[in-house]
Amino acid sequence: VSTNFSSLNIGYESPNSANEARNLLEKHGKRAKIVAGGQTLSLLVQHKTVDPDVLIDISSIPEFGRIKEGESFISIGATVTYDQLLSNPVVTKYSALYDAVSGIADRSVRNMGTVGGAISHSDPAFDIVPALLGMDATVHIASVDGKRTVPLSEFQCGHMTTDLGDNELVETITFDKRDSRSNSAYICHAHNGYWSTVGVCAAITLSTDSTKIKEAKVALAGVDEYAVRSPSVEKRLKNKPLSKTMIQNAAEAVIVDFDPIDRISEPHRQAPPVSDDYKCNLSEVLTQRSIQQGVKRAGGEL
Amino acid sequence: MSSDKSKLGSKSDRTIINEDEISVGKSVKRIDSLEKVTGKAIYGTDLKNEGMVFGAVVRSDVPHGQIISVDTETAMSIDGVIAVVSRQELLGKFDNRIRFCGDVIAAVAAKDISTAKRAAREVAYEIEPLNPVFEASEAVRETAPRLHKNNVDIGQHIDGHHFEVENEAWVQNIDDYHKFSLGNFEKAYQEAEYTLEETYTSPRVTHCNLDTHCTVARWEEEKLVLTEMLASPEAGKKELAHFMQMEPKNVEIRMPPTGSSNFGGRSLRKLTLEPIAATLAKLTEAPVKLWWGRDEEFIAAETRHKTEYEIQMGISADGKIEAVKTEVMTDTGAYPNGIGHIVLWMAMNRLLDLYKIPNYEYEGVSTFTNNVPAGEYRGIGSTQFWFAMDSHMDELARKAEIDPLTFRQQNLVKDKYKNEATGTINDGTGAQECLKRGQERLDEVYNIDTTDTSYLYGVGLSLAVHPTAGNIGETEGATDVSEVELTVFENGRVHAKTGAVEQGQGSDTVIAQIISEETGIPTHLIDVERFPTSDSLTDEYGSIASRTTYVVGGAAFEAGQNLAKKLKEYAAKTVDTDVKNVRIDDDIIRWPGGSMPTEQLLRSIEEPINIVGRHETGKQPPSYGAHFAVVKIDPETGKIDIQTYVAAQDVGYAINPTGVEGQLEGAVLHGTEFVLFSGLDLHNGSLQNANFTEYATVPAPKMPAQLETEIVESNETAGPYGAKGVGTPCLPPVAPAILNAIRDATGHRFTEPPVTSEALHEVLQP
After folding, report:
1. CA nearest A282 in B: which residue?
2. Distance from CA of B291 to the nearest CA of A (A)
């Protein structure tokens, strides 16, 4: 996706530091939009869903483009691209994240699209968001007023709507490192190969003897107004001995937690549109498969 | 295989070393690739002129109605607006009736596109709604609202087909009609051992050309000059002149420097493009660029006809086809353009090109409705027809427990079989060869691991035929003709003016190859250009109906031969020898005791050499394709993957094998799109998915994982080096091959594509 923003009479700023970006955002407030890779924003501008007066391009701010491995956590800068995630040996240990990102659109989108951009748009069809929900990711937000952190699950608050204030931007995303008994999977279905109709992430931690699920996080794309966790499934998995029947039983609970919408509202409708029944079926099947895959990857036997 | 050599010439036996540039039958690199990949190519939408103004169309959001008033005042008062014109004031045979959502109400010219579009939104109008009709089956009834009288002529097409309807139930809104019968269908059907009756509906799909429609119109006194990508400029010129009630000589169509893709979407002029630009150019006395947005492209660029086929077929116990009855109802949309006739004509005639059918009944009607207009799309009529007919044959073979390949083989025409509907004679050898070679290739490459039994696997094959070059061969005395002019300039370059329109298919390269083969002049010295319609050279149809290599290539062949003769004469004179002693080898011209590269000879020329080649043919050779698909389906989600695809296509002779492969691969893409993904979504005539977010196209990951092309060369006696058409004939077999594979995997016959994951999932529920 590429748009010649200059032809749309939109101002364009390219700050070189985080402080500069925060100051610009303070100055322009809600008239401004942050642009990183532009893969979502370009479409929204073209469709006139958003109509900014000025774009603040943060893609050349060095600190936003880094992936860091701390003692207990991983930190990913907002402008890290999908392609950079896929080629980073630290990130690729997080299987669901790798599954999700490697299936995003096509190479040109993966070369340009960024983690921060995906998070900040809260689009229900984005594959990366359930994967990050499965990691229990935290969003690091900043403005001239200071910094704050919000769990990703709370950061999203509606269809294409987030907790970001007018003068705030997402700077990094962090999540805890996994131990050897944890692993994850993301499985999605997209008839046209691009926008997922449904995608499910299962992040599994096994008990020390690998016979039980100690804890599970299950998150879905495409089933609600934004990517959501499924507490009912997670509850049915917690502390349960491993078995295919148990997983099937847990997966059946997935439809308790959301209200499937047959046509995700503008601008990312499904092509072709699908029925609620089919979406429920996909949710159940893919939840079951991603849990099984996550368990196997974590070293469990089924 | 035919042992006859092409009358037009065969590949010579001479030694050729420089195969990268001089040779037919080799994948010579494209002569237009460098400027395209470096972004230097200038397409129609790139055109800019001094003083150019920009047009926008005010389109209707009601499907049917009478325009009561159009108020242009507010729009006219906007700064930068130069002209606003109502429908009634447009040049051409426009009446005051709106017939589809997207029909033209008014038009605006302004200093830039955004001002024009803004002003278009400010044009106020009042329309008195009329009852609309959206279903072809309802439109023909006596009670339906009438869009046009039958056999209407509003100057939308030339060479109209006059018809008398012999069906009492089909009364009005009839765009075209065909009926044919052979033998006694009813009796044979009753006596048949196995019978099958089924209805198939093809979806309304569109080309999705990357470059949307664009024309630049200007007037040179009485003459209208249009610069635009139009694949059939001569026909377009005549049709526009007819519609705008002008002398054909006063309409000139020029190509932009680089043509953009077509697939039939740019074969015809468009009701809401050229006449509007022409009117605005006249009013503003400036060149007007009218460039459609993507939404307009979906609405007004003319879709493939949505068509319903009701088929009955009866076969004997040993699988011989005894009786076929086909009833066709096709929706041409709001205006006539002559294409409904072709859709019906293909459905009527193609079956008898391929199979021996002793008892056959056919009746078809093309109707006017208040839907978006339909027109040409790659493999017009055949693509829909073979989807239906080959699906039907596959199903009947299964019912009779006959191997699908054997069933098709044993019913194929042979030994100069006469197609009684057209009078053409076919022996079907190319088709036999495609079936045989396609199956062999599939056996060779098939390596699908079917051990995971949670998936369903299926194999399907299809066989289809589509003619090379339309409008000839089936009409008494009709011929197709083209001329090519070659000029050798003093700088040593050869300029070829041809009737071909390079639209990405590689025609310029093929023409250069032919000239090169005949003259020994390397392709990098040959410039190929489409001549404007004002030129004295003749070409009737441009690059449509897969005629380019076959007809224009024939003219290039003759021009090349004439030029070779001139070059030899020139060389003989220069070195003072008899012309009989001069010969061309590779890119070298030789005479007793000496030689010179042709390139050097060309540079020594003192004054331009100019020659013309002409080719005329009345033969319309059938081009066959046997395609094979292997699918893998996940029954729990309905996910479908085409694992292996083999396209065996009889192209007569492959002048550029890589070009042929590209055509076949592109056809698999178009066919996959039609069978698994696309469909325009119309609600009460209004298009709901006029964008690429909601209109599904086939993405690269959904193409077959393994795609093999098998080029069959049957040596067509009427084509250059034995070549015939490939671009359109390779599409019709694709959809049925995939549908037959799905049938094999699931046991379910899908009759209304697109087949989505959800549809597959639904039929696989216990």
Report:
1. B637
2. 17
Interatomic CA distance for residues B196 and B398, integer angstroms: 11
Per-residue pLDDT tens over the stretch B605-649: 999 999 999 999 999 999 999 999 999 999 999 999 999 999 999
- Of the candidates A59, A76, A90, the one whose C-alpha atom is nearest the C-alpha of residue A119 is A76
Q: CA B4, B9, B10, B13 torsion: positive or negative? A: positive
Q: Which among A189, A267, A286 has CB closest to B757?
A: A189
Joined tokens for residue B451: 């051990």
Instruction: Choose, out of A39, A187, A191, A197, the residue to mutate when testing the contact with B (most B CBs < 10 Å).
Output: A191
Chain B residue numbers touching A275 (CB-CB < 8 A): 758
Structure-block tokens of residue B744: 């094999």
- Nearest chain A residue to B113 by CA: give it: A7
Task: Quote the pLDDT of residue B9.
Answer: 64
Inter-chain Cβ pairs, chain A and chain B, closer than 8 A: 57
β-strand B53-59 against B81-86: which pairing, if any?
unpaired
CA distance B415 to B426: 7
Residue B158 pLDDT > 80, yes or no? no
- C-alpha span between B596 and B85 (Å, rounded): 64
What is the DSSP annotation of B498-539? ES---SSS-HHHHHHHHHHHHH---GGGEEEEEPPTTSSS-B
pTM exceeds 0.90: yes
Partner-chain contact A192 B677, CB within 8 Å: yes
B758 → chain A, closest CA residue: A278
> Dihedral sign, CA of A253, A259, A263, A269?
negative
Contact B615, B514 (CB under 8 A): no
Q: Does B697 touch chain A (CB under 8 A)?
A: yes
How far, in Å, CA of A75 to CA of A73, rounded?
A: 7
- Nearest 5°: the CA angle B128, B129, B131 is 145
Asked if B695 and A106 come within 8 Å (Cβ–Cβ), the reply is: no
At B244-301, the pLDDT tens digits run 999 999 999 999 999 999 999 999 999 999 999 999 999 999 999 999 999 999 999 9
Q: Judging by DSSP bridges, how do beta strands B53-59 and B288-291 pair with one another?
A: parallel
